[in-house]
Amino acid sequence: MGFLDLLHGARGRASTLDERSRANLLRAWGLDESDLEERTPEDAGEKNPLDYDRSQWGRKLRHILDGLPDSESRWEHLIQEGRAKRFDEDWMRGLMRDEFAMMVRRAVADRVFTDRERQKLDRARTLIGLDEDEARAISSSVVREAESFFGEQVEGT
After folding, report:
1. Which of 8, 102, 125, 157 is deepest in the core (most CB within 10 A)?
2. Three-state DSSP state, 81
3. 128 plus 93 within the same structural domain
4. How far apart are CA 15 and CA 155, in angstroms?
5. What's the DSSP call for residue 30?
6. At what angle do helices 89-108 and 115-128 cross, to 10 degrees?
7. Does residue 134 sit in the same domain as residue 94?
8. For 52-76, what is each residue's pLDDT tens digit?
9. Helices (H), ranges, the chain
10. How many domains does the chain fold into?
């Protein structure tokens, strides 16, 4: 038997195993056929091009915020790009707030909040347009979450 014949036979057996296991998996995960049909890979090809643009814009946002202060010069271009693509201002602002919260999470992940991290967050806060009270509320919430998770205080807060 040739190698390709062996592969062809394995493919047929694998699909039989998949069909046999399908019911068990659906039952174990608490799903039914309609749930599975809603998540078929064919749907991935029908996504709106705007979804891709939003995803890319979010990645650029994250990259710029992570690179502060060196990446600050690219901020205005990012905002202009979002407006040129007609992204909703509220959507962009919400994503910026979420990314600010993620920056705080990364800053306290080692249980130490340094002056350098604080300066970076303050610069991000200014660029995003968060007022001090809003930024403090986000930071306090994330720090409480981290302290609860770690079971100890975050230094420097």
Report:
1. 125
2. helix
3. yes
4. 54
5. T
6. 180
7. yes
8. 999 999 999 999 999 999 999 999 9
9. 3-28, 33-38, 49-66, 75-84, 89-108, 115-128, 132-150
10. 2
